[in-house]
């Protein structure tokens, strides 16, 4: 080819097209990262720790030997007075259960998600003390999320729900995971047990005492039945 016939435009770089491609990729990447962080970050975090548990064989395979506590108590700090005044004296003082609590048993300096995961998998069961403030708390929602992951993954009855307030099911619609659990399971209600508090504690004792079969203790929690 003669030099005069050479199309020199083929030697130039289309900077505008490169800018367009780069900008599009950056915007798409930002949207994917934002979506993942907002909706899936805790699922990914849990999957990461579940992978570590499988890799190092510390949580799932040896979970029976790792049960240091009878129950991990998940609650909002605003409900801590009820836990300290009502729950602890009954379960630890009178019934001699060993409970795991945030302020007392979490390891200082350890990441919160590590403490939550270790507490849930290191306990035979998880007691969720649910109130409106509990539902508004991000960390509380993470705790019941990990507990429900364990429930669905192991297919064992490891979750006990105690309602401190009467919350209509309709108001739980934003909390789809909670509503799904309530539709499938029974639960205990503290307000409705005021006339017979001893029955409430007896039902809670039975729920802690029973084995981990999903259907084994469904007939025990009859203080309040789920819808």
Automatic annotation (TrEMBL):
Q: Which residues form the TIR domain?
A: 67-208
- Subcellular localization, as worded in the UniProt entry: Membrane
Q: Where are the transmembrane segments?
A: 12-33, 39-56
Q: List UniProt keywords, sorted A-Z.
A: Glycoprotein, Immunity, Inflammatory response, Innate immunity, Leucine-rich repeat, Membrane, Receptor, Repeat, Signal, Transmembrane, Transmembrane helix
Under PROSITE patterns, the record lists: TIR
What InterPro entries does the record point to?
TIR_dom (IPR000157), Toll_tir_struct_dom_sf (IPR035897)
- Topology in the membrane? Single-pass type I membrane protein
Any GO BP: innate immune response
Cited Gene3D superfamilies: Toll/interleukin-1 receptor homology (TIR) domain
Which Pfam families has this protein been placed in? TIR (PF01582)
For this record, the Gene Ontology CC terms, alphabetical, are:
plasma membrane
- Keyword Iron assigned: no
* Molecular functions per Gene Ontology: signaling receptor activity
Q: Which family does it belong to?
A: Belongs to the Toll-like receptor family.
By what name is this protein known? TIR domain-containing protein
* High-level lineage: Eukaryota, Metazoa, Chordata, Craniata, Vertebrata
């Amino acid at each position: 080819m003669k030099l005069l016939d050479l199309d020199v435009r083929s030697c130039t770089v289309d900077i505008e097209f490169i800018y367009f491609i780069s900008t599009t990729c950056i915007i798409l990447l930002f949207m994917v990262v934002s979506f993942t962080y907002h909706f899936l970050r805790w699922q990914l975090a849990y999957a990461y720790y579940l992978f570590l548990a499988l890799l190092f064989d510390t949580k799932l395979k040896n979970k029976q030997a790792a049960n240091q506590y009878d129950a991990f108590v998940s609650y909002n700090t605003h409900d801590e007075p009820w836990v300290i005044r009502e729950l602890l004296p009954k379960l630890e003082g009178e019934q001699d259960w060993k409970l795991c609590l945030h302020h007392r048993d979490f390891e200082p300096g350890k990441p919160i998600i590590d403490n939550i995961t270790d507490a849930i998998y290191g306990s035979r069961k998880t007691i969720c003390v649910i109130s409106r403030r509990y539902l508004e708390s991000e960390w509380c929602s993470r705790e019941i999320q990990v507990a429900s992951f364990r429930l669905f993954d192991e297919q064992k009855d490891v979750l006990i729900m105690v309602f401190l307030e009467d919350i209509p099911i309709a108001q739980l619609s934003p909390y789809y995971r909670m509503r799904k659990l309530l539709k499938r399971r029974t639960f205990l209600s503290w307000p409705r047990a005021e006339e017979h508090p001893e029955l409430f504690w007896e039902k809670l004792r039975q729920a802690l005492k029973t084995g981990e079969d999903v259907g084994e203790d469904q007939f025990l929690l009859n203080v309040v039945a789920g819808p």
